Amino acid sequence: MASSLPSGSLVLSLYLLLFPVCLATDSASITYHGGPLLTGNLNLTLIWYGQFGRVHKNVIRAFVESLHYNAGANLQPQVSSWWNVVESYQEVAGKGSSPINVKVVKQVTDLKYSAGKAVTSEFIQKVLRKATGGDSNTIPVILTARDVKMQGLCFTKCSQHGMLGDHQQPYIVVGNPESECPGSCAWPFQKPDKGPLSITLNPPNGNLGVDAMVVAFARALVEAVTNPYKTGFFQDNSNNANKTVEAASACWGIFGSGAFDGYTGKVRVDPETGGGFNGHGSRGRKFLIPAVWNPKTKSCWTLL
């Protein structure tokens, strides 16, 4: 049976007794502002920008598959349960209730770094136009290799979503923090650059870079769906373009119940690999999935 606490649980238990205060979320209430959401079939174009290994690609694709995968009664909790909470935003917005089917329909590889090695707004436009060829029926996702610098990455901008062109085509960019800023964007798999004492976890898929990218990708995907055009769900007093608190950022640093600053909350540890996780997915993969704001309970929701 998998443990519910990482190694070093005695230290962690003492820490919990000394500092039993959970992360406050009441001040980060997310409300609906009347704009459209992304619903129905979401076709993704994955853009592998730079050098990626097979593990990275397999894990990211398995995460997307896991959003709709039934892992079975013996493999609980499931990533798909987390996605069900994201789907519930439609009902709260008065737009009915139906599955949001996310599927990878195209993959593009750019091994030659055609737009350079620094992600800026100009970089994003150039890469997206080249990769999509003007097709506005997909949601492009740029995944950058570890040697690509992402502007703002060291300030917890681990991923982002936005709009491109006259058609306001939604897009997502996910940075790999393994080399540039692991202390900012790879926690809880890496000790943070600042903050309180923190117990780190082994990455569930054995690779710090890709497991951190899954966390960042999950956050950006949630927020692209629930606030694609900056008129959907977000915190009322955060409508500044650079400081918008959305469905995932409202629950930053929370991965399980009982979380507080420097502690992920309840997670499980794979007895075979030692990797920390909270959700089962496709291909036998395990993932650590961040908390998401539940619009019905008006609180942060986790798989454990």
UniProtKB/TrEMBL annotation:
**A Pfam family annotated for this UniProt entry:** Phi_1
Secreted among the record's keywords? yes
Q: Name one GO cellular component term.
A: apoplast
Q: Where in the cell is it found?
A: Secreted, Extracellular space, Apoplast
Q: Which InterPro entries match?
A: EXORDIUM-like (IPR006766)
- Recite the UniProt keywords alphabetically: Apoplast, Secreted, Signal
**What start and end residues bound the annotated signal peptide?**
1-24
Coiled coil located at which positions?
Answer: none
Please give the chief subcellular localization of this protein: secreted
**Which family is annotated?**
Belongs to the EXORDIUM family.
The identity of this protein, by name, is Phosphate-responsive 1 family protein
- Record the organism: Populus alba x Populus x berolinensis
